[in-house]
Amino acid sequence: MGASNLKCRECAAEYALEARYVCERCFGPLEVAYENARLADDIPGLRRRIQGGPQNIWRYADFLPLTAQPGPSGRTSSRAALPAGCTPLIRADRLAERLGLREVWVKNDAANPTHSFKDRVVSVASARARELGYEVLACASTGNLANSVAAHGAALGMETYVFIPSDLEEQKILATGVYGTNLVKVRGNYDDVNRLCTELSGERDWAFVNVNMRPYYAEGSKTLAYEIAEQLGWELPDRCVVPIASGSLYTKIAKGFEEWLGLGLVEGELPVMNGAQAQGCSPVATAWEAGHDVCRPVKPDTIAKSLAIGNPADGPYALELARRSDGAIDAVSDDEIRAGIRLLAETTGVFTETAGGTTTATLAKLAARGDIDPSERVVLVITGEGLKTLDAVRGTFESHEIGASFDEFVEQVEGAGARA
Amino acid sequence: MGASNLKCRECAAEYALEARYVCERCFGPLEVAYENARLADDIPGLRRRIQGGPQNIWRYADFLPLTAQPGPSGRTSSRAALPAGCTPLIRADRLAERLGLREVWVKNDAANPTHSFKDRVVSVASARARELGYEVLACASTGNLANSVAAHGAALGMETYVFIPSDLEEQKILATGVYGTNLVKVRGNYDDVNRLCTELSGERDWAFVNVNMRPYYAEGSKTLAYEIAEQLGWELPDRCVVPIASGSLYTKIAKGFEEWLGLGLVEGELPVMNGAQAQGCSPVATAWEAGHDVCRPVKPDTIAKSLAIGNPADGPYALELARRSDGAIDAVSDDEIRAGIRLLAETTGVFTETAGGTTTATLAKLAARGDIDPSERVVLVITGEGLKTLDAVRGTFESHEIGASFDEFVEQVEGAGARA
C-alpha cells in the first residue's frame, strides 16, 4: 500500500500503522501518511487505473490505508462488505437559478448503502480493522455512523457495539437495531457518548471505528474529494460547501484535493472551503466569527442531530482550513435548515436530512450575501438522507384528502386552487 | 430509437408511439415493440457500447422507447433528471449459508435516487412524456411511485399530481410532500385510487406515468434484468425471486432477459421466475395455487402496502410466466415478512422495506421446501428501502439504555449477557 505510517499532526512523530490515534509525546491527533510520490510519474496511467477500477471507493485504493490490493471487482476478503462511494454528482441548474448562481453541483452521498457518507469511513475503518485482526466493531454515533457500523458488521459477519445518545431520532434507532447489533442508548449527548467510548476502547479489544481506528476511518472522507474531481472531468470546483460536526469531513475533503494537486492529477488550486453548522451547535462558526484559533465547547440544541458535536475534535484544523482557502464557517437556524431541506427537494429532487438542509441553507446565505462570484462552479455536499429525519419536514407542506371521485377532485383540489 | 410502435398483447394490433395504453379493438394492454434485430450483428460492439455508457439506465438506451440519443454522460434534455439504475448486485454468502444455498445475489434497488425501483420506470415515463410534449406528470401510487414522481417532477421542473391511498405509511407521505407536489390522499385502497386516475387521465392533458404512459413506464423495469446479466459478466442467473404487485415488474424482468437471449447478447435460457406476494393481498398466488389463468380481485390487508394491489393488471401474464419458466408464485404472512426484513439485514447489511421482506421470506420458503437445487445461482430482487416502512421493524429487536459510565455498561449491558 501507499500508506507508510501514522504521523502526529502537531509534532510529526511517527508510528507504525496500528490501532492508535493519539501521539504519545504531545497528545496530538495521528493521521495516515503516504509514500506515493512515484504515482506522479504516470498520470495518464493513474487516471486510467482509477477509471477502470470498481464503481466504489476502492477505485482510489492507492490513496487509502489498506494493505491488500483489491481484486478486479474491488473485492478482497477485507472489503467484501457494502460497496460505498461513487455517488452521483448532479448538476443543479434549478437550484442555481433560484440562488442567482451560474453553476451548482450536488454531491449526493445519501446514495450510499446506508444513505450517508459514513459508509465511506466505515468501509475503510472496518477493512483496516480486519487487517489488524479485530473481531468486534464499535462506535460512538450521532446516528448515521450507527446505521453504517451495524450494517457493515452484518455484511462482514462481525459482532458490533453501537453507542448513541438516547434522544436520537427513532428513524436512526430502528435503522440500526434491525441489523442485529448490540445497541446501547446512553443518557447524555454525543460528547458524553464519545467519552464513554474512549474509556471503553482502552478496556476492550474492539475496533472503535471513530476512536482507536480514527486515523484510518477519517481517510475514507477523502474519497468524496476524489470523486468530485473525477466526476468533473479531472477538474476541481471553485468552492465546496461542507457540513461541520467534528470537522473531520471538512478537513479531509481538502486533504483529498491537496493530495491530487500535489501529484498533478488535477491542476489549479484548493477550492474555497465553506463550512456549515447549525446555530444550535456552532462552536466552530462561533470561533470563526470571533477570530479564535480554537473552539469553546457547547451543549448542542438543534434539529441537526447528526451535526450535534459540541466539542469538535478537528475544530482548530477546520478554522485553519477556512482561513487558508479564503473560505468561511457559517451557522444557520433550525428554521433555515428546514427551508434548506425544502429548497433542495423542490429544485433537485434530492431529499436530504437536516445536515444537508444545513449546507443548503448555508449556500443560500452565501449567495444572498454576495460571497459567491457568478462565474464560480460550486459543489454542495449532501451527506445524508431525508428519510432519517422526517420530523424536520412534518407540517412544511399541504395535502388534500378526498373520496375516490372525480367531482370531489374538481371541487376540493382544483377548487381550492391547487398549485397548477 | 429501436422502438417501432405500440402493439396489443392480445390481438397484436399496432399503434404509433403515443400516450395510449389500451387496444381500441380488443381492450388488451399495449406494449412497446422494437425493431432492433440488427443489434445482433455486432454483439462485442454492443457490449462495449453498453459498458462504455453512463452509470445509469440510459446505458441501455437501445432497448428503451425514447427518441433522442443520450449524450456522452447519458444526459439529453429529456433525461437530465435523477439518474436511476446501476444499483449494486451484492453476493450474499451469509444469507446463502443461513438458507443452505450455494450462491445468492441481492439486487439492491433501494440504492436508486428515491430508494425504490420506481425510479427506473418514472425515468423512462417522464422522459417520454417530455418528448410527447406533456407539462404535467401524475400517478396513482402505493407510495414508492409517489416519491419518485414527485422527485422527478422537482428535478425536471414539471408540475406533478400524486394520488395515494389516505392510509399510506407516514414516511412515504412526508417523503413525497417535501418535493412540492400536489398531493392528493384518496379515502380508499390503491384500486380506488387507480380507478380515479384512469378517469382523470381522460379528462386532463396530463402524463399519468402508470396510466396513459404505462407502456413506456413498464419498459423501465427491463433495465433490472439487463443490469443483473451485465453484472454477472453477461450471464443469466438460474433463478430470480421478484415481488408481485401489478405483475408488471415480474413480467418485464423476464422480457428483458428474453430480449437479450433473442439477440444473443447472453446465452442459456430464461431463469426460473419466482413471484412473491403477501398473504394479505395475494390474488396472483391464490390463482396460481388453484391453477387458474386469471386472478380474482381481493381487498388488501397486509403490512406490505407497496404490494397491496388487489386487482393486478398483469396478473394473467404473471401466471403465464411462472408456468413457462418452471417457476411459482408464493405468498408469505406479515410475520414472515417482518422476519424476512430482519434476515436480510442481519446477513447482508441491506435494510429493505416490506416488499423486500416479502421476497426474502419467499426465498427462505423455497429453500426450506427444497425447491432450489444447491447448484443454482439465485438473484433476490430487493425493490425498496427499509426507512420507508419503519413500523415493520419496531419492536423486533432489543436495546440497552444506560448512563454515560463504564460501570453501568459492564453491569447493565455485559451483565445482561449482551450478544458478544
Describe the protein.
The structure is a homodimer of 420-residue chains. By secondary structure, chain A is of the alpha/beta class. Among the domains of chain A are: 98-110 and 221-392, Rossmann fold (3-Layer(aba) Sandwich); 118-218, Rossmann fold (3-Layer(aba) Sandwich), CATH 3.40.50. Chain A contains 14 helices and 14 strands. In chain A, the strands form three sheets. Chain A has a six-stranded mixed beta sheet with strand order 4-5-13-10-11-12, with helices on both faces. Chain A has a four-stranded parallel beta sheet with strand order 8-7-6-9, sandwiched between helices. A three-stranded antiparallel beta sheet of chain A has the order 2-1-3. In chain A, α5 links the parallel β7 (159-165) and β8 (182-187). In chain A, α3 packs across α4, α9 packs across α11 and α10 packs across α11. Chain A is globular. Mean pLDDT of chain A is 94; it is low at 71-75. Chains A and B meet through α4, α5, β8, α6 and α12 of A and α4, α5, β8, α6 and α12 of B.
